[in-house]
Design goal:
With 117 residues, the protein is an all-alpha fold. The protein has 2 helices and no strands.
Length: 117
């Protein structure tokens, strides 16, 4: 899909060149009559440059925001997994202790006998 978009943009650029080559401008087209017109042209160029820089900055800011959100999510996941790991170790110790008591028949009293008095 991306390749098709690039080829489409190339064809449009070529066609724009064809159109611009057919246009004829008078010989004094690029001459500026007064300083006001020159500053107007420079203002247009500065505006286009500022919009371009703002667009790039906004996209960079969006990517940074997404990366920050992903980092925060990963940090929370690691905290939850560490808590889970600690609980699993604690439960493993409880289970090992219970197995030892069952194997030694010492779960209830000495030798497994129930003493009421």
């Amino acid at each position: 899909m991306k390749d098709k978009l690039i080829w489409f943009a190339c064809v449009l650029l070529f066609l724009a060149g064809v159109v611009w080559s057919k246009l004829s401008f008078p010989s004094d087209f690029y001459k500026v009559e007064n300083i006001h017109d020159l500053f107007d042209m420079m203002g247009v160029a500065a505006t286009i440059a500022a919009v371009s820089v703002a667009y790039v900055g906004l996209n960079s800011w969006r990517r940074q925001g997404k990366a920050t959100a992903d980092h925060e999510l990963a940090r929370k996941l690691i905290v939850v997994l560490r808590i889970y790991q600690d609980e699993m170790i604690k439960n493993w110790v409880y289970a090992a202790n219970a197995v030892g008591k069952i194997e030694n028949n010492s779960w209830i009293g000495d030798g497994g006998e129930i003493t009421i008095w």
